[in-house]
Every structure is written in C-alpha cells, then in structure tokens.
Amino acid sequence: MKRLLSFLPVGMAILMPFITVQACGPFFFDDVFVRPLRPDHPKLFAQGKLGILLPTYPRADLTVAYRYLDGGTLTPEEQKAYKPTSSLSEIENDETSDDAELSRTSTTDYAEPTGPADQWLVGRNKFATPQADVHDLRGYGSAYPAGAALARGYSICQEDAFRTALTTLQSRAKTWGAKSVELAEWIKAQDAVFSNCSGDPQRYSWGPKADIHPSVPAPAQGNATLLLRQDRAYQMAAAQFYTSQFALERVGFQAIASDQASPWHGIAAYLVARCLIREAYLAAAPGNDPDDNTASYDKELMKQAQQQLESLRGQRLSGISPHAILQMLNLVRLRTEPENRLREISAALASANADADYAQDLEDFTWYLNDKLDSIPIREDTGDFQFKVHPPQDTYTPLTPVQKQPGFEKAYDQVANLRSISHLIDWLITFQSPSDSAKKHALAEWKRTPTLPWLAASLAKASASDPEADALVEAAGRVSSTSPAYPTISYHRIRLLLESGRAPQARAEVTAVSSAIQTLGSDSAQNLFTGLRMRTAATLEGALPDIPRKILDRVSTEQASIRECLYVMKDPKRKYDCQDPKSPVEFSADSAVLFNNQMPLTTLAQAARSDALPAPLRQSVAIMTWVRAVLLKSDPVAAQMFSLLPPKLQQEAGAGTGFRPLMAVLRNAGLRPYLDPGVQRSYSYDFVESYADNWWCGAWTNPIAEQHAAAIPASIAFLPAGSRATAEEEVHELRDLGSADEYLGSQVVAYANSHPHDPDVPEALYLTLRMIRYGCYHGYGSGATDSNSTTPDKIAQQVVGLMRRRYIANPWTKKAAPFVYLGAPATSSN
Length: 830
Fold this sequence. Notes:
The chain is mainly alpha-helical. About 50% of the residues lie in helices and about 5% in strands. It contains 38 helices and seven strands. Strands 2-5-4 form a three-stranded antiparallel sheet, with no helix packed on it. The longest helix is centred in the first third of the chain and has 18 residues, at about 160-175. The protein starts with a strand and ends in a 15-residue tail after the last helix.
C-alpha cells in the first residue's frame, strides 16, 4: 500500500485548508553534546549500561533503568520490547545533500511495509477479481475557528481481523471449493466488511476513501448452507462494529455467542466486550475532558466491558486465547480502576522476575503517566507556556529558574496521590522534578531506605551546601564500579567534590573513572565527565584540552547558516568567506559560558593563541575576542588578535579600535562578542543569513548559553577571583552597550555627523539600515514592538535623514532603497 507520510506523526499532523498563512519554519534546536531525550546506545542501555541518567529522559527509559538500579535485569525478550525515542539527528538530519536543507518538504510518498492487510489481499485475489488496496486507517479531527484541523488517526480494522479473514478464506476454500458459489458469496461479503476500514461521511476522514458510505452485507439467503449463514451473521456484526452501529453490533455478537454450534461463538463473546469498549470511546459522556485520554470515555459502558471480560476469564473459547482476554481486561482496568492496575504494572516492571507482558506493561504504564504528567511542569525541560506566568504585553524573555520554581512545586504537590501508588512511580516523578520538595523527598527516602535508586536521585539533586552532601559523597564512594548506577553516581559525586572546593580530589577521581566511562561507548557521558575535568584544571593550559567536546547532533541556526551560505555560493557571482570545517568538536554550552561570562579579555587572548584548541575553534575565539576588544576600545588586545583574523577580515578592519573596525563588524553579520554553544556563527561570518541570526541582540550573549550559566560554579580552579571579577565588569560594560542595532547604529550616526566628508560614511549608513533590517530588530518600519524598538527606529530615521540631505545621489543610498523609502532630497545647506 502507498500512504502519504506527514512530516509530523499522524496524531500531530496539522492541516490548514482554505486559509493563507506565513511559514513558521524551519525550526532549529540547540546543537547536541549530551542527548537529553534518550541514551546514546539504546541496545546497550537495555542491557544495563545506563551511562549517566538524566531527568529529561522519557519515563520508559527511566523505568528500564529503575529495574537495573534496584538490582534486577531485563531478559533478552524484555530488552527487545524497549523502544527508545528517536534522537534529533534521526528526525531532523536524515537528508544528505546541501540542497535538502533548502528544499525540504513536509510530506513524502513511501511504500508502506507489507502487513496483514496486504497478505489478506494477496490471498483473496487468488479466488476473486483483484481488488484495490485496503486502507485500515480511520481519521478524525478537531476544527478550529481559523479553519485549521488537528487530524488524528486510528485503525478501525485491527491486524488480527485481516489475519482471521485470511485463515477463514483458506479454510472455506477447502470446504466449499475454490470456484464455488459459496466462496464467492463469502468473499463478496468480506469485501463489504473491509470497505468500512476507512472513510466516514459523518467525520473528518483520512485517505482516498473518505466518500465511502457504511457497508453492511445482506443476510444470507434461506437456502444457503448453515456454515455460510453462520459466517454471514459474523460478517454483518463485524461490519456494524466497524461502522459504529453499536446497538446492532452488540445484539449480533451476543446472538452468535449464544449459538454453541457457530464456529464464531467463542470470539463473539469477546467481541461483545470490544464493542462496549469502542462505544465507550466514541460516545464519551458530556463533561469529560477531551484532552484527558484517561477519562475521555463513557464510564458506564467501560464498566460493562470489564464485567463481560471478567465473565470470560479462565474460559477456553474458540478463536480467542485466555491471554488476549486478559490483555483486553487489563486495558479496561487501567481506565476503570487505574490505581490497582498501576500497582500491578509497577510491580511487574520493577521486579527482578521476568515480565511476560513487559512490552504491553511498559506501554500502558508510560501512556498513563505521560497523559497525567506531560501537561504540567514536572520535568525540568517543561515549556514556559505551562507555567502560566504572563509576561508584560508584547514582550517575551525565557522564564528564569526562580520564576519556574513555584510551578514546579505546585505540580509536584498536585501529583502526591499518583506518587503514592508505587515506589516506581514515586521515584520516576521525583527524579524528574526539579522542585525543592522533590529534592527533600528524595533525601528522606534515601535515609529511610538507602537504596541505589534513591541514592542516585538524591545525588542528582544535591548541592554542596546541603547538610547531607558529605554523607551522599561518602555513600557514592562505596558504589561498585560494576554497578549499572556507577556512571551516574560517580558523576554527581565528583560534581559535589568540585562544588565544595575539593578540585584536586575531584580531578583525581575523574582520571580514575575515565577508563570505565570510555568502555560505555557513550559520547554524552564522556562529554559530561570531560566538562567536570575542565573545571578541575589548575591552569588555563590544563583546561583548554577539555573545553572542546564531541558534537553529536548539528541542528542549530548556525549550522543552517553554513549550509545556506554554501548553497548560495553555487552561484559563481556570490562570493563569501564561509566554510564548514566539519570539526568533530565544538564549544558545548558550559564551555561557551566559561568564555562568554568568566574569562577576561587577557585570558581570552591567551586561549586564542594556544595550540591546545583545534584551529577552527581557536579562530572563533580570536574573532570573538577581537570584537570584544573593538567594542571595549582595548587597542592592545585588538592588536594581539588582528593577525589571527581571517585575511579578508584583516583587510576590512585595519588596525586599532576606531571607526574602521566598527565598519568591519557592520559588514559581517556573523561577528558577535560571544561564542555560540555548538557550531559557530563565525564560520559564516560575512554572510547575512535568512533567519535573523545576524549580529547580536540586546542581551548580546546567546540565551541558550545563559541558561547554563548556573552550571559553572563560583570556584573554577584555573580562574582566580580577580580574573572573574574583571570578566564580570567587562561583560557588564558590553551589555550596557545594547544590541548591535543600538550601539553600532548610534556610533555610525555620530561619526557621520562629525565626519560628513569621509567617503566611507555613505556605505556605513547603508550597512546600518541593512543591519536593522536583517538583525535582531527585524526591520525599520516593520511595526516591531520589542522593548528596544524605539531606539533602532530613531536611529533608522536619523540615517534616512542623513542620506536624504547629504547623499541622495550616492550609489550606497540607492542601494538602500529596498530597506526604506527615501523620497526626494530635502533642501539643506549641508
């Protein structure tokens, strides 16, 4: 079968008919050095090589980890049942050409793997005129006022239906004959049944069969054989089941279940319950929250389904196994008596004994918890919108940890009853929550039951100032290197040693565990431990080798800038100095913060000249340090960095820190006074890219890196307090300059007024308008309403006034026309 595959999963596909919208993408993420949403090697993870556990891991991963932390293991069958989340690179970076970045489309046609529906068609077509594909996906959706629809899909005809039909077809062919009238009638009726698998005139529908009307086979004629009449009764009930004719379908299956002579009486009794379940979902009682999947059903009908299934428990019914009945009963009980069922699932998942239903239990368990928890701020990476903190109108800045903390506290308290159901659920929620209450609870549980799961949770949340810190460090030192918890425990033990000022001991322990960490084969764990070792170095030269980290996924705007620049350069008329060094290492977020916030200019200049950094990163440090020196008017540092700049930039900048270097910054949109976490924008420094990642905004530094500033402790061994204080003063001065729009624009206007005859002034005025158009402000006259919008507007107005009065005939003024309407020159004596 062929099916249109949306860029988003079926359950998240957004369709917007009859409206015109502006594109919101493409969407970019942080470059990845530590995978926050899955372990590096899921197969090894399922075998107990857990690496460093992160609270942002999905609950399924942490559930797997819990069994190992608690002393158990997963059998080979259970390991196969674990399905990890895809990484960003697997989702976003499956294209191989540079063109793909610019031509990515949201849908693609692909060949769906062969399944039971296809196998049914192959078997059926041997006995009848070939039929087109059977589409077993029913779609439905929610309409929104703007005309958009959120489309979801589910399978009306389950795989077992096609398998049963094929088995029955083969049996009836032997009984009646391949060319018999009876078999032809049976196939005709079965075609009618499966024609209901997709399409529904009463709903938003999916696929090419949206106009199909419900089709129920007619009753068999009175002179038909008994077996054909029995089959037809089952086919009619199945068609009514697929078309949601609830009253008829239940009556039909109940009649079949009471007919002991029917070959379908056993499975029909089971299907009575299936009818009740589907009816419960599709006929939810008014008042149920449609966004709560655990409650969006008719409770009375679901209880009736439970009673029907319990009446069948232990029976040996033809056509359905006792295990299938139990599984369906468990599905129902997770809705009707969730606490009891969650206790059972938790015990099975956490037990050292093998769980024969591990895959289903893990799916049910995480489905329920995700539905209850993902809409509230439980995890530390919860989106800001869930905190219900409303910023001043028309402004947005990321919420700070202080602003988020009340939301974390409220959410953790809100799920107290859920946590009380089982130790596993309590640990999962507590490990993921960054609330102070979760930290206190983890410590209390560790003191009460000093087990590895609670030791790991307590260590992950502890800080060196906690009264229990020393006891935790001591307990962590007793954990065996063969324990699955060892990487997590060791990482946080060393972190606490470092934060408490014991850098030499921390460095010794990082060195001691390095071989064990390398055997894990986890780049994420290696990067985290390397970050610890960087912070323990006694000198800058000792720290520099640990500052670069292996980059795992390149998914940032900066990487897109390189690709866009290289693509544009396929036109021989477009020449830029951009390059993709494809460096295996880059500056991770904590390294970027170290350079951006903690190192003074003199130390940055040392790092830029050190061979301990790879050449691409060394040049990025030199460019960033030179920009800082120009902005801070530090001629000595600017002179030191000048020879390290790319030749093209040297030619444009000239020596010193005056107007010419500022013009060089204006010319080159990728220059900024900070390093980017991940791929560096300086790799395409002279290219104005399409997504406004040009120059710098009011905070001048990268907000992603700023969020990690708290990860750098006050005591970095190789940076004395005086150096850090100097760095803080320089950072404060740089931030006071404002955005590139504000500072560079105001400098150009002032210089133009004081040096009106300088031949470079017209170009500088043009470059200022270009910067305002393509930089942080997004364009003069665009109606932008950010908090600093008045300053760029005023600067642009001043620039336009100067162009009109003095330089209206200048080529640079004409080139500025796309950015702003200049109009006729004003009369002036200037």
